[in-house]
Amino acid sequence: MLAMAIDVATRRLVPLQRPRPRPGPREVLVRVRACGVCRTDLHIIDGELPRREPAAVPGHEVVGEVVALGEGARLFAPGQRVGIGWLGRSCGVCPFCATARENLCDAPLFTGYDRDGGYAAYCAADERFCFALPDGVDDLHAAPLLCAGLIGFRSWRLAGGRRPKRLGLWGFGAAAHIVCQLAVAQGQQVYAFTRPGDAAAQAFARALGASWAGASTEAPAGALDASVIFAPEGALVPAALAATRKGGVVVCGGIHMSTIPAFDYRLLWGERELRSVANLTRADGEAFFQLLREVPVHSQVQPFALPDANAALQALREGRLQGAAVLVP
Q1: d(Cα 90, Cα 16) in Å, to the nearest integer?
Q2: CB 116 within 8 A of CB 123
Q3: Is the pLDDT assigned to residue 53 strictly greater than 90?
Q4: Per-residue model confidence as pLDDT tens digits over 262-275
Q5: Distance from the CA of 276 to the CA of which of 150, 255, 259, 314 falls in 20 to 30 A?
Q6: Are 160 and 275 in contact (CB under 8 A)?
């Protein structure tokens, strides 16, 4: 089968012919129909996250069809559509798993990082960490929901969910454009912050219902109740704190961020809360996909053929995407 694997020397993906994976115990073999391109993939390929499998096949926003079952697998049937996300397995016994915080597991496996992911024709996954997907969303538009959607949803909930009236989204990419739609549907006012001069992203945010859209160097009238930072720029942390009212929350939604510069304590004072998001739990996924049955969300996607994965990644690097890139085998 065709797989796009990481070449450490060039920090690019190279096409390889690999044997089709065999599903292990409690695993399913999935024929990949679509796989979203996530900024985390860039962090892995560019070496910003420590490499675990040097020649790994990235991809953790996988939509596919179950074609074979490993020993003991019984949750899905051949022919059924499933989604595969970032958390590929948790140990189930560490203190975090024992307290319903498997996203902080001490010995996790991550899809496209510790084990091969969806930049390939086929992918094997632990059935217990796969998701049944809503029927009303096609493969192409479902793919970004598996990470941009899930992490965005967890970030939104940690920022207060429906409670904040004025919600700031810093970096208007794949995750933010999904969260924006969720928040607007709940009656929240969304304030979208983009790179200076990115008029296209600002117009995109307004088209999705944002009350205000501007550069991260600008400030809307009035303080925000909460902010979520999706862009991996540490300099946005003090900016978001400065824009958020006393008692508000600033959530860092990425797995990697550049160095956060020193800032005055006054920006944190007033019982503002600064926190990060780490991975996700299966309960997050179940709650998110249930919410999507009540609140329709349309992910904006740009399809690329699987052999063109490097072009998709470069478009993400350069900020030329509105919404998300999706690879199609």
Answers
A1: 29
A2: yes
A3: no
A4: 999 999 999 999 99
A5: 314
A6: no
Read off the pLDDT band of 8 (50, 70, 90).
confident
Q: What is the pLDDT, as a whole number, of residue 50?
A: 83
- Determine the pLDDT at residue 221: 86
- pLDDT category at 201 given cuts 50, 70, 90 is very high
Q: What is the pLDDT of residue 61?
A: 97
Separation CA 263–CA 255 (nearest Å): 22
**Could you give the CA distance from residue 121 to residue 143 in angstroms, rounded to a whole number?**
15
Which residue type is seen at 230?
F
Partners of 29 in the beta sheet?
68, 124
Helix/strand/coil (H, E, C) string of the chain? CEEEEEECCCCEEEEEECCCCCCCCCEEEEEEEEEECCHHHHHHHCCCCCCCCCCCCCCCCEEEEEEEECCCCCCCCCCCEEEECCEEECCCCCCCHHHCCHHHCCCCEEECCCECCCCECEEEEEHHHEEECCCCCCHHHHHHHHCHHHHHHHHHHHCCCCCCCEEEEECCCHHHHHHHHHHHHCCCEEEEEECCCCHHHHHHHHHCCCCEEEECCCCCCCCEEEEEECCCCCCHHHHHHHHEEEEEEEEECCCCCCCCCCCCHHHCCCCCEEEECCCCCHHHHHHHHHHHCCCCCCCCEEEEEHHHHHHHHHHHHCCCCCCEEEEEC
- What does the block give as tokens for 80? 């059924």
Distance from C-alpha of 273 to C-alpha of 25, rounded to nearest angstrom:
43
Claim: this prediction has a pTM higher than 0.90: yes
User: What are the CB-based long-range contacts (under 8 Å, 24+) for 218-224?
Assistant: 218/193, 219/243, 220/191, 222/166, 223/166, 223/248, 224/164, 224/166, 224/167, 224/168, 224/191, 224/248
List, for residues 119-174, the tens digit of each pLDDT value: 999 999 999 999 999 888 999 999 999 999 999 999 999 999 999 999 999 999 99
